[in-house]
Structures are given as C-alpha cells and as structure tokens.
Specification:
By secondary structure, the chain is an alpha+beta fold. It has two domains: 3-173, 2-Layer Sandwich (Beta-Lactamase), CATH 3.30.450.20; 188-241, Winged helix-like DNA-binding domain superfamily/Winged helix DNA-binding domain (Arc Repressor Mutant, subunit A). Helices cover 41% and strands 23% of the residues.
C-alpha cells in the first residue's frame, strides 16, 4: 500500500530541501524510496538520432553520439545505463569512479555493484506490480571510505530500441554539499575564513571539529557561523523585498 511522505535531501545542516514522495515497503537490507513521477517517461524518452554526431560512420550501432557522450561526461553526477540483464551499456567517468569505490572492480563485463543492482531489481519488480506508473527508485549507499552516494534508478526509453534500459544517477553527496557551499559563499559574499568554515560546516563538521581543522578557537567558529547566517538572512530578506 502506497502512502504519502517526505524525504530530505542534502547534507548541509543549515538547509532542508524536502520533496513529496510515495513510500513503498523496501526489500530487506535496503533503505529504498520508490515514488511515481508522471514526467519520468517524457524526460527519459530520448533519441540518439536527434544529436549531431561528427564521427557517426566510425561508431557501432547503438553507441551514443560523441556530442551526447561528451555532455554526459561533463556532468557532476555519475551516470550509468544498464540493460535489464545487468549489462553495462554506458558509464561515465564519475560512475566508474563510484563503482570502483564500491567494488574495486568494474573492468569485468556485467560487473555492477550489488548495492546498485539491488535498486535496479526493485525497479524491475515495481514495473511488474505497477505497470502503468513511471517509477523511480531512490536509495542512499556508502562507499568503502564511508562517502554517501544518493542513487536514483528509472527507466530510459530510446527510439529504435525494443526494450527500455535502466538509467542510474549517482550523486556524491559530499561533493554536492561542497559545490553548494562554494556557490553560497559567492552568493552571500563570505570572507575567505567564513568560506572555509562554511565548507566544513556543510560537510558535516561540528564546531569543535572545524576549530581543530582550521586551528582556531571554537568561539571564533561560532562567531563566523553567526555572521554567515546573518548574511544569508540579509540576502533572503533583500530578495523577498524585491519581489
């Protein structure tokens, strides 16, 4: 039985980003969220032929064009495309790095980390139980160095392909928090020291840990965080007053 709920995304303790989802009971040993999105099918229905490929005469049938592959490689998230049998159709460099952290081996064909494939199987099962819905599976997994990775799996429908593929997005939450902190430091005109404090704060450091990392007093860290919050509040107030 599906029921409405919420899931929080993002690690920065100062930010709470909430999105509405529908929960379903997860398989054992799997902290998975499955939710429906009416837009998933349209967003994932792509055509390789819609991209200009300057090297199309030298590529195998079914290979993504150079332009599209270059775009996917430039993304911050790891992107993988799998068949329903677990064959790796495509994986960008970020996905390969994350998979290596999970298994220390992605050189073998069909070598998909079990943490990822578990979510893929949940998506396949979800299609059998809810054939009319566009299902997205979301989970959070840990690498061997304890980095948190947000995993999202959905169906990818391609023109001229009989069976849909599995599209996997792998988000390094620590890297995302780092990038967000840098963007906010610029947005709120933080000083160099405030930026250093904010980067560590968004990475999950306590005030005491920040003080030890930066060789400053904990009271100094507290003052910097107070200043950062004041600048954020001023910027938000200014933004609202301009609306």
């Amino acid at each position: 039985m599906l029921r409405e709920g919420h899931i929080a995304s993002g690690y920065c303790p100062e930010i709470a980003i909430m999105s509405r989802v529908e929960f379903i009971q997860a398989p054992p040993m799997m902290n998975t969220v499955m939710y429906s999105s009416n837009q998933c099918i349209d967003q994932n229905h792509l055509s390789w032929s819609s991209f200009q490929d300057p090297d199309k005469n030298n590529r195998k049938p079914g290979d993504p064009p150079v332009l599209l592959q270059g775009i996917v490689e430039s993304l911050i998230d790891g992107i993988m495309i799998l068949s329903e049998q677990g064959e790796v159709i495509f994986a960008n460099s970020h996905a390969k790095r994350i998979c290596y952290q999970l298994t220390q081996n992605l050189s073998r064909r069909n070598s998909v980390p079990r943490q990822i494939w578990r979510s893929c199987k949940a998506l396949i099962q979800g299609r059998e139980e809810f054939p009319e819905d566009a299902i997205v599976i979301e989970d959070e997994i840990k690498t061997q160095d304890l980095a948190a990775i947000r995993l999202r799996v959905r169906w990818l429908n391609l023109d001229n392909v009989e069976h849909p593929y599995l599209l996997i997005a792998l988000e390094d939450l620590q890297q995302s928090a780092h990038n967000r902190a840098i963007a906010e430091a610029q947005k709120y005109s933080l000083t160099k020291r405030e930026t250093q404090v904010w980067l560590l704060r968004c990475a999950g450091y306590t005030r005491k840990a920040i003080a030890a990392e930066l060789y400053i007093k904990e009271d100094t860290v507290k003052k910097h965080i107070k200043s950062i919050r004041a600048k954020r509040n001023d910027a938000e107030w200014l933004g609202e007053s301009l609306i």
